[in-house]
Amino acid sequence: MLVIVCPGQGSQVPGLLAPWLELPGLRSRLESYSDAAGVDLVAHGTTSDADTIRDTAVAQPLIVAGGLLSYSALLDPDGGSEQLPTPPAAAVSGHSVGEVTAAALAGALAPLLALSLVGVRGRAMAEASNAHPTGMSAVLGGRPEEVLDAIEGHGLTPANVNGAGQVVAAGDLDALAALGEAPPARARVIPLSVAGAFHTRYMAPAVDALAAAARTTHVADPAVPIVSNRDGEPVTSGRQLVQRLVDQVRNPVRWDLCMERFAALGVTGVLEIVPSGTLVGLAKRGLKGVGLCALAGPDSLDEARAFVREHAGDAPPVSVSAGDRNGQP
After folding, report:
1. Sequence-ordered strand ranges (E) for 7-118
2. Does domain 2-127+200-326 have CATH number 3.40.50.300?
3. Catalytic residue among 11, 93, 96, 228
4. Does the annotation mark 199 as catalytic?
């Protein structure tokens, strides 16, 4: 049984999309994604430096676009369809902004609508970040209860509870620095390459902008369940999904509960799409015995296709009408 997972912000790297644009149809697809997001994703995915793509308004659509391009190359190698194939998986899930990618994979959002929505999300969260100097740091190791006590004791929020011994603290930069100077016992604190305290009260101003955009966005019921960051529950309603996507901006990501749900579903394989590495790393520690595959670049496509066949079988995906999966509002 397969689950496909989509990474979140902080996983982007310079030149992320350059090798993918050599594949048939992907450059023109990325150009259309750029138009929808209001961001030059061709430039940012090929030549922009690390500081440029750290900008939330750039990073979020870049990550979603990378996920959709790699997924389409995986299941539509000829590049002949503008539609995304239905996932040959028991469920999909995404970490933070990766939930937007997951929503597009599952057919709840048309690809261009997903890029338009994430463009709004990224700009609104960047604006909220600029209002106060905030950030995020990963706390690795330590006793879970002691880690949470230390985070809250510094006036910070456990914004990502990722499982596998990792919690991400978010909030004021001075408080994060103080946490780094006095980490919990047997833990280390690593600052993350993000520009704000995402999934905390600091993001409240971004909620209204995203909610307004969501109200005019056509959302369908997903073709496969989407395991939600809020509580690890599988979501099958488009209406419920869009509300969760909006609320998620200022609420913690519970990836630990997502992994618990994967285990409860009896998942045998976890496939992470571009920009991969973080989520299979967590699964390696938190889902013992489950097969893992990180789709890193075009040279790993054959390995990823074999992994899909092994864990999902090679039956054709269940078809969903183009109107439901890719319709415009």
Report:
1. 91-94
2. no
3. 96
4. yes
